[in-house]
Amino acid sequence: MNTTAILIGLGPLLGWGLYPTIASKIGGRPVNQILGSTLGTLIFALVFAIVNGMSLPTGMDLIFSILSGVGWAIAQIITFQSFTLIGSSRAMPITTAFQLLGASLWGVFALGDWPGASAKLLGGFALVLIILGAWMTVWTEEKTQEKASILKKAVLLLAVGEIGYWAYSAAPQATSIDGMHAFLPQAIGMLLVALVYSVILSVKDKEKSVLTEAVSYKHIFSGFFFAFAALTYLISAQPNMNGLATGFILSQTSVVLATLTGIWFLGQKKTKKEMTITIIGLVLILAAATMTVMI
User: Fold this and answer.
1) Could you tell me which residues come within 8 angstroms of residue 202 by beta carbon, excluding any fewer than 6 positions away?
2) Which of these, 144, 197, 242, 251, has the minimum number of CB atoms within 10 Å of its CB?
3) Per residue in 111-164, pLDDT tens?
4) How far apart are CA 89 and CA 133, in angstroms?
5) Residue 57 gets which letter from DSSP?
6) Transmembrane segments in this chain: where (predicted)?
């Protein structure tokens, strides 16, 4: 494994690690965030496709790639809504845990991963660690019924959002193209969802169109960070780079940066004891992620 491959594999650490914090810092409503983010992703994907001379795939490859982007955008809208409830520093470990659980269970039941009793036992232990780690990141010293209710609502939202993230990962498996060729149609699917969501809200709330709000276009910048992470992960997962297993492990390091930058730069304060338990929880999540891909 060479240095270049490792550096590319750590691209998601920066991209996905900073994306939720930047999006939260720019502000606006979830609809502003998803519109600008997906527009930024599409611009990034278009430039990448043009520079590399890539054309759009056709037939079912195109359809499944677009559906992959649709799944991500729906899930991300839900995730942005959870940010307004509990903040990105608490929401990101939870959504990462759900994605790890979803990927692992999909691998076991659909792809035949973890064959044998010992592998399933070790995998089950890893899933328990993921759940425990996620719980530790949202643990608070000051417990109130109101806070518990808000946290429960956010967790339910993120659990539903996992369906979209699962589609984002699973749909490309039905195609005959690699991730880099699926990148542009994925971005198209993302922007389509954002546009439909924007129109529905404008009609429902009878407010001015999100397309005319400046904050929507500021989020193009955050979209570049997501696109950079997605692309470097696709490259990292190639067999001649880090491979899928190692590439996946490296990409999960983003949860640490996303959580810590949310605390440091967004004023999502934690007590000293809460911070200690949060860090332990993050370590458990990363350790469990490593276990699941090495079984």
Assistant:
1) 208, 209, 210
2) 144
3) 677 888 888 899 889 989 999 999 999 888 887 888 889 999 999 999 999 999
4) 14
5) P
6) 6-22, 34-56, 62-80, 117-138, 150-168, 180-203, 215-235, 247-266, 275-294
pLDDT band at 173 (very low <50, low <70, confident <90, very high): confident
Q: What is the pLDDT of residue 207?
A: 66
Interval 246-273 mean pLDDT: 87
CA 294 – CA 123 distance, rounded (Å):
10
Contacts of 180 (CB under 8 A, 6+ apart): 48, 52, 54, 231, 234, 235
Q: What residues contact 287, with CB distance under 8 A and at least 6 apart?
A: 129
E strand intervals along 231-270: none
The alpha carbon of residue 260 and the mean position of all alpha carbons in its chain are separated, in whole angstroms, by: 16
Average pLDDT, the chain: 89
Contact 77, 34 (CB under 8 A): yes
- The 8-class DSSP code of residue 56 comes to P
H or E segment and range at residue 129: helix 117-137
Q: Which pair of structure tokens corresponds to residue 103?
A: 């990927």
Enumerate residues 6+ apart whose C-beta is below 8 A from 2. none
Residue entry with tokens 């914090």: 21
Query: In this structure, which amino acid lies at residue 88?
Result: S
Name the nearest CA neighbour of 91 among 8, 42, 160, 154. 154
Digit-coded pLDDT (tens) for 88-107: 999 999 998 998 888 788 77
The closest of 76, 99, 51 to 222, measured between CA atoms, is: 76
Give the burial class of 90: count Cβ atoms within 10 A of its Cβ; 0-12 exposed, 13-18 middle, 19 or more buried.
buried
3-state secondary structure of 142: coil
Asked whether 179 and 12 are in contact (CB, 8 A), the reply is no
More confident residue, 210 or 243: 210
* Tokens read off for 166: 């699962």
Helix, strand, or coil (residue 176): coil
